[in-house]
Amino acid sequence: MRKLMVAVLCCLVFLAPVFGQAGGDQVQWRKYAGTSLYLGMNKHIYTTTIRKVIDEFTAKTGIKIVIDEYAQDEFMNKRLVDLSSGAGAFDIVMMDSIATQAAQAGWIENLDPWFERKDLVDKKAYNFQDLSPSFRKAFTVNGSTYAIPVSGEKQILYYRKDIFKEKNLKVPATFDELFETAKTLKKEYPAGILLRGQKIHTVSNTTGVIWSYGGKIADDPAKYNKAVFNSPEGIKGADMYTTMAREFGPAGVGNYTWYECVSDFQQGKAPMYLDMSVFMSQFEDKEKSLVAGKVGYAPMPAGPAGSKPTGGAWAISMSTASKKKDAAFMFLSWVTSPEVCVKLALEGGISARSSVLGHPSLAAKYPADWLSAFSAGLAADVPELTFPLISKNEEYLDTIGTAFNSLILKKQDVKAVLDDAAIKVTKIFQESK
Amino acid sequence: MSSKARRKKGYGVWVKTILIWGFAVLYLFPLVWTFSLSLKTQVDALSYPPKFISILTLSNYVKVWSESDFLKYCLNSLIIALSATVIGLTLATPAAYVLSRKRYKPKGSKYILFGVLSTRVVPQITFMIPFFILFRKLRLIDTHISVIIMHLTIILGFGIWMMKSYFQEIPFELEESALIDGCNYFTAFRRIILPLGAPGIATTAIFSFNYSWNEFLYSLILTGKNTKTVPLGVYNWVGYEEINWGGLTATAILALVPILIFYGFVQRGLVRGLTMGAVKG
Amino acid sequence: MRGGLQEREIRRFRWAMLAPGLIVLFAINAVPIIDTLLTSFNDFYLPRPQQEKFIGLANYVNLFKDARFLSALGRTFKFVALVVSTEIVLGLSIAILLTSDIKASKALRSVFLLPIILTPITTAFMWRIMFSPTLGVFNYFLSLVGIEPQQWIYSVDQALPSVAMVITWCKTPFMIMVFYTGLLSIPDDVIDAAMIDGASRWQQMIHIKLPLIRPVFFVAILFQLIDTFKEFDLTFILTRGGPGSTTEWLSVYTYLNSFGFLKMGYGSASAIIMSVLITIIAALVVKFGGVNLEQ
Q: Which keywords does this chain's UniProt record carry (chain C) (predicted)?
């Protein structure tokens, strides 16, 4: 009996390394030393933050990382040309709402099989479930993951603490309150509230309001058969956003993108702003903003159906035309692993991992009300993804954006405009199948 | 001229001068504003009422110098623009000359000229993907050559047409007398047209260089990390959450310098050509 | 016979001078133009290249039924007419003033050259913030004289003229330079002869100088027409075609189709139609402008 036990023990001792302990001992970090990886990145704070950690990766693996960064519009063009031509100039590409299109076209790699590669990643330590589900879903096509979210944002309400205190105003918790507050403030300021109005840019924000009134964009959040945003609830929601923009927004709101909104807010031209949470750093930086230290952050107000903010995420993916996929995946999984994400979050305040967002060191660095507004947004129960997971997403944005934009430009019958748009969007859904 | 008439003439000159300088100053305002933004901090850049007098800082220029590869962008742009201009003009000038002379031009010259013009009518954006695929096959991405070739598509057509019309202003009799004196066709071209047509050639050179230096779309698609050009360097300051005005304008102002130098060189040629023209018998 | 020898020499000279330029030009341009033309006959959605199929003229037919395309068409014509006419008037006036007897004309020439050498992207961004309804410096100046703040490129009515203003600002220096050099190239003895004949300055201008620079004049207009028709970069940064569709020219709509919606066939057809239109306009200018293709 004893001999058997010793034998078993010996086996276990021998076999233990094979079954592996946590800590990536299996991962053959130096296997691809000498390779160079090219990253096609958008000019985003994420790119700035990863520059600080790539040396660590190179030291660990001997793989050189070259970052090619472009401003957003040009990044989109360059990425499109590279991916669609199969040139493979980029091994890793920053990915956003075109993920479905890129996945269906076979431009980016299905990452599920790659996570099974024990020589490249320690799956357990990677803790895939830690990636915020709402962001993860946006990059899951046909049940498989095609990109890993790296930075997320949610709609929140920015407001001027000092002005609210001075006027004894309550932070709006519902859209009706927001409406009234904006109306009052418009009497004194160039804008009662800043809102994005430009055709494409207005879609995500308006969608959040539609959700909060109980409406949705599509009938089925997975199948996208029919557009249903022209339901009575959807109409109310769209009406609320577009009326606020038209009546209490800044002059020229019809072509306002985030850029105009952020500048106006930084210069103190309006006391409220409803948009994505990512602009916090722009307002708190004294070198850029006159209102640093005076900004309050609140969760998006609630409609009859609750507070259901939209969100967005950037992700990174692997090009199918890459000739160094093993090394590329090693980097991809490393830079999105929990430990590295904490480092990145401390640098830039962004992450898509739930554990990181709750990290105490972040709490020390960023305004508490921003963190809670953001977390509230993440926790909200939303009916579908912000942008439909379809191939023809640009056409969708253009069509529905035109509808919302026309309502912002001119007071019209909301139902008629949305009915018309819904027919067109349903057609786009069908064509995208 | 009576002294009264002369005084009147003097007033006329002054009125015209003031008018045009006034207009020039107004015209220049956006440039002045750009320059002023390059000296301001980000928060001052957008302040309203606009701060005409604010704390001036050179930090943006320092940032451009240290944080971006400005010199490299300049070098790349310079190589591309100079090559494109020189090659373009070398190919276009003789062609323009022949097409401007009844004596020399071929029978179907009307169609040739129109064909040249047609190369310019297709919008650039549609060329993006086919050219990218082509140059990738030839392994010419991230090289200067591919961009130079793309710029030649514009410069050649433009050059042939512009210089042809300038050469047309020079009477053929001048070459005729040179030919009678025993020059061959090419020498006549070289001795008569090049000096007299210098203003036209210079103007074409300036606009060709300018086009190539400031060209954005093809440079974006065909360059890579090593061959990034100055306009891309300017666009670099446009980010996801902000537009860094200081960096953008500082890069833009610095980018003016090489063109102005080029213009200075070409100006001298222009002046020389004009004075030679005045001396001809 | 001397004639035959001379003819051969001329022919050799002619083709030696013409061939290099023409060969390079047509070689470079042929491939993409043909590629675009061929794509325009297909239904080609870029993410699904395997589904590309030939559909003949369907893209063209659909374009002419497309209300958005047609309004873009009309808008483009309006825009081009506005820009080019302003450039001609402004450019010619300034060029004439520059060649007259004013002081410091050389410095002035360099001053007028500056807008065109500034990188277009910079120009676009600069004008965009100067136009800002809340933070822009133009509205500030207007407020000083008691005029209300305008919305410029953010206004449905003012967007088109505002963009036109920017393009004009940017491109008029080209016209100025071309006209100016053209006026300067007029040989002195022609002017001298006119002066001896007693012509006044004004008469010299109208009857001698302007007719002589006619070739240069019309070539400049020709190129400006073509370029303005294709104008895209500045507009895209200034307004992205908005507000609504008020600055959506044909070039913007073509870009949207090709690079936004990725309908390459449809976008290519749109580009071909644009090219054909420009070619027709060019032909008209050549014919009526007396751009003398025969000397």
A: Membrane, Transmembrane, Transmembrane helix, Transport
